[in-house]
Design brief:
Elements: H1 29-62, H2 65-87, H3 94-122, E1 130-131, E2 134-135, H4 137-163, H5 168-222, H6 229-251, H7 253-265, E3 269-274, E4 279-283, E5 292-295, E6 298-302, H8 306-319, E7 325-330, H9 335-340, E8 348-352, H10 356-364, H11 366-371, E9 381-384, H12 388-394, E10 399-405, H13 420-429, E11 430-441, H14 447-459, E12 463-470, E13 492-499, H15 508-515
Parallel strand pairs: 7-8, 7-10, 8-9, 10-11
Antiparallel strand pairs: 1-2, 3-4, 4-5, 5-6, 11-13, 12-13
Keywords: Cell membrane, Membrane, Polyamine biosynthesis, Spermidine biosynthesis, Transferase, Transmembrane, Transmembrane helix
InterPro entries: MFS_trans_sf, PABS, PABS_CS, SAM-dependent_MTases_sf, Spermi_synthase
Subunit structure: Homodimer or homotetramer.
Length: 534
């Protein structure tokens, strides 16, 4: 082991403090090395939080979490490699370069969530990840943050070697160990600490603050002699500016969020609730304005024409046979249950709804409970707060009618609820003359998705009758399609009625309307091979 205070041996590479000089550290070499590894740990934790923040926010704003995660991860990993190559040119000024990179990373990463949310709220419709052949802001932030994170590695390697020379393999092992442990802590802190306690916007700002302080403290605390007096002053001023910007954003984050929410939902926001499952927003419902229910930014219910949708979902399946025992999958707003209870002979209605928050809101919000006719107050209704897939696997009950009022299959998290395995479980709980109806998304705008639902039901051993109902207006926008005004909403709703025997549909015109769009030869969607992309 080389004494860090001894002259450099012949042939050793020149060090930043001057040719042949060892750095002058304010602490012992072992302590300095520990502090560098601690800095690696903190920076890695912050970097992974930025990464997860981009994935989470993009999944909420754009939908399709698998695609967003794939894009963010692949772009960031590519950019990290590119950043490492670029940073090789900064190794002769490793301390100054590292300090500047951490200040910029703290600013970009800390403000990334607010910038994405602002673009979503004020820059118009996000039709998908790619629009007009160009990358969205998500890709830009992934690229920039990845470049900066990748640039950290060679500079930190240079700094740790300057404190105590060791073989390259040992230095890499130490550096990566601290980096990976930091990534573990950041990865766990994001979902279990930052997101539930601070939210996406404030969590990113706090992470940027920690990042800036850690980078500046490491450089000025250990390697201040490597910087000129002007360089030290510039680094301090830069970090104070970054911290001031982050602090100012944190102070105004609530006002920003309210303004952005109004830009997205309009000025009639009455309720904004973040549950363990999703964000719930209610607008209207008073002063003559129709009620609208948004789940994770997507319009799920519009008071203008929700009745037509729920009538088309519920009444055909209820009219076609016995309906004493009914199971509603999803439907936490109570509107499908309202239509079920209009039929005589209903003795029991079970509702499998994952989010207890939406059910509680449907019980207590005056406008929503008035719209659903206080459906959950009926003694025949039992709510089970569990995933629909889990309920179908675990229940031993059988039902005359099963109503699948679930998010559109185009949302990645919902694909398992439109799989062959799921419909096989639904078939198992159907009574001998039982029927199942599935909301399968708009037909005109996504015919392939609609007919894949039909093919999947058939693959599960059910006979089907697809049907299509047009809306009186386009206020209802189910599924992942974001609605920015009436022009963006689907203008029809597609459903599939299914049973063990060929079901009889009381709306022959609706069946003919769907049949005209039929796509044949589509494969079924399964858990391991979902086929609802696009």
């Amino acid at each position: 082991m080389i004494d860090p205070h001894a002259p450099a041996p012949p042939g050793a590479p020149p060090l930043e403090g001057g040719p042949g000089e060892r750095p002058r550290l304010p602490v012992r070499a072992a302590t300095g090395r520990f502090l560098v590894l601690a800095g690696v740990f903190v920076c890695a934790a912050c970097g992974l939080v930025y990464e997860l923040e981009l994935v989470a926010l993009a999944s909420y704003l754009i939908g399709d979490s698998v695609t967003q995660a794939s894009v963010v991860l692949s772009v960031m990993v590519f950019a990290m490699g590119l950043g490492s190559l670029i940073a090789k040119r900064l190794r002769s000024h490793a301390a100054a370069g590292f300090g500047a990179i951490e200040a910029l990373l703290a600013l970009v990463g800390g403000c990334s969530a607010m910038a994405l949310y602002a673009a979503f709220a004020w820059a118009g419709h996000w039709g998908g990840l790619w629009e007009g052949g160009s990358h969205h802001l998500l890709v830009v932030f992934s690229l920039v943050i990845g470049l900066l994170i990748g640039a950290e590695v060679p500079l930190l390697m240079e700094l740790i070697q300057r404190i105590r020379r060791q073989d390259a393999g040992g230095a890499v092992a130490d550096l990566f160990a601290a980096d990976y442990v930091g990534a573990l802590v950041g990865g766990l802190a994001f979902p279990f600490l930052l997101l539930p306690l601070l939210g996406q916007l404030t969590g990113a700002l706090i992470t940027g603050t920690v990042n800036a302080i850690a980078g500046c403290a490491l450089v000025l605390g250990l390697f201040r002699q490597d910087l000129t007096r002007r360089g030290r002053r510039l680094l301090v001023v830069t970090n104070l500016v970054v911290l001031g910007l982050l602090a100012s954003a944190a102070v105004h984050v609530d006002d920003f969020e309210r303004a952005a929410r109004q830009a997205v939902y309009g000025h009639g926001v009455r309720v904004s609730l973040q549950t363990d499952v999703q964000e719930i927003v209610l607008t209207g419902g008073s002063d003559g304005r129709p009620l609208s229910l948004f789940l994770d930014g997507r319009l799920r219910v519009s008071g203008r024409d929700e009745r037509r949708y729920h009538e088309a979902l519920v009444h055909p399946v209820m009219h076609n046979g016995p309906h004493a025992r009914v199971l509603v999958l999803g439907g936490g707003d109570g509107l499908a249950v309202r239509e079920v209870l209009r039929h005589t002979g209903v003795r029991q209605v079970d509702v499998a709804e994952l989010d207890a928050g939406i059910v509680q809101l449907a019980r207590t919000d005056p406008a929503l409970s008035a719209l659903n006719k206080d459906a959950f107050g009926d003694p025949r209704v039992r709510v089970v707060n569990t995933d629909a897939f889990v309920w179908l696997r675990e229940t031993r009950d059988t039902y005359d009618v099963v109503i699948s009022d679930l998010p559109d299959p185009g949302i990645t998290a919902s694909t398992k609820l439109y799989s062959q395995e799921f419909y096989g479980l639904a078939r198992r709980v159907l009574a001998e003359r039982g029927r199942l109806v599935v909301h399968a998304g708009p037909v005109a705008s996504r015919p392939r998705v609609f007919w894949t639902v039909d093919a999947t039901l058939r693959a599960a051993g059910l006979r089907t009758v697809p049907y299509r109902v047009g809306g009186r207006d386009s206020g209802f926008a189910a599924g992942p399609d974001r609605t920015r005004g009436p022009a963006g909403a689907p203008r029809d709703w597609g459903f599939v009625l299914a049973s063990r025997t060929t079901p009889v549909l009381s709306l022959p015109g609706a069946a003919r309307a769907a049949e005209r769009t039929r796509l044949s030869g589509l494969p079924a969607s399964t858990l391991v091979h979902p086929r609802y992309a696009g």
